[in-house]
Amino acid sequence: MWERQRVVLDGGVATELEARGHDLSDALWSARLLADAPEEVVAAHLAFFRAGANVATTASYQASFTGFAARGIGPVQAASLLRRSVELVKRARDQVSDDVPRWVAASVGPYGAVLADGSEYRGRYGVSRHKLAAFHRPRLDVLAEAEPDLLALETVPDVEEAEALLDALESVGMPAWLSYTVDGGRTRAGQPLEEAFAVAAGRADIVAVGVNCCAPEDVADAVVIARETTGKPVLAYPNSGQGWDPEAGRWTGTSRFSADEAASWYARGVTAVGGCCRVPPADIAALARVVRSG
């Protein structure tokens, strides 16, 4: 899909929505605005497209039938909101009048994201692979119905959930990328990255692999492992490297995200680079300048 291309991914959609004045402390996170402020979601996607992103991920990371049900939203409306997440990116894309290629990636966050307790950064939920696949399959099906260009299976904390996602993907008939959140040379659950990426090595429907929502300094070694293990295009979209203080309810430290690092990641075989939490459109614009300058 992206062979021989340099692709710029978007940054933190939730970060941009917060910058636009929205409180995302709700358990649904940015998915709440799919119902409450869809035009603001379009504006956030548009900001990243105008910054130079080729790919925008939908505001569906924390969206699921289970999560919506907890807010009193039934399955019919939940399915409509999931489809809307894709439609809103398409609306943003339609407002950019140039010949730059752009893709819509439907975000599928891990089971832990729905729990809204930080467990997506630990994994090992005590839930079987079969139950994890059953949780993911319905929203994969609905997101695919909305016809994004691909699915983004992202911020996956451990191998077992990756396997469950791949089980659920088998019947969908849509390409996807698989991206782990990592800590050093291991998944958040502690498995070696060679083992983690090996599950995607023989899957034709997985068109790219990589890492996201990790510290920028964790990217370089991880992407080499991803490329050597799978032979697939590799993507990297770390967060800013800042920490979250749950007691104070605020981010701590300063951003360590640097667009200039993209050159070294490309030298290690990365195809697509972007940002995750706390990476705003300005950082993506700087990244796009680095990428397109060669």
Automatic annotation (TrEMBL):
UniProt cofactor(s): Zn(2+)
Pfam families according to UniProt: S-methyl_trans
Example of a GO MF term: S-adenosylmethionine-homocysteine S-methyltransferase activity
InterPro entries, A to Z: BHMT-like, HCY_dom, HCY_dom_sf, Hcy_S-methyltransferase
EC numbers for this chain: 2.1.1.10
Keywords per UniProt: Metal-binding, Methyltransferase, Transferase, Zinc
Comment on bound cofactor: Binds 1 zinc ion per subunit.
Residue ranges of domain Hcy-binding in the record: 1-291
UniProt-annotated binding residues for Zn(2+): C213, C276, C277
GO BP term (any one): methionine biosynthetic process
Family annotation (PANTHER family): HOMOCYSTEINE S-METHYLTRANSFERASE-LIKE ISOFORM 1 (PTHR46015:SF1), ZGC:172121 (PTHR46015)
Protein name: Homocysteine S-methyltransferase
Protein's organism: Saccharomonospora amisosensis
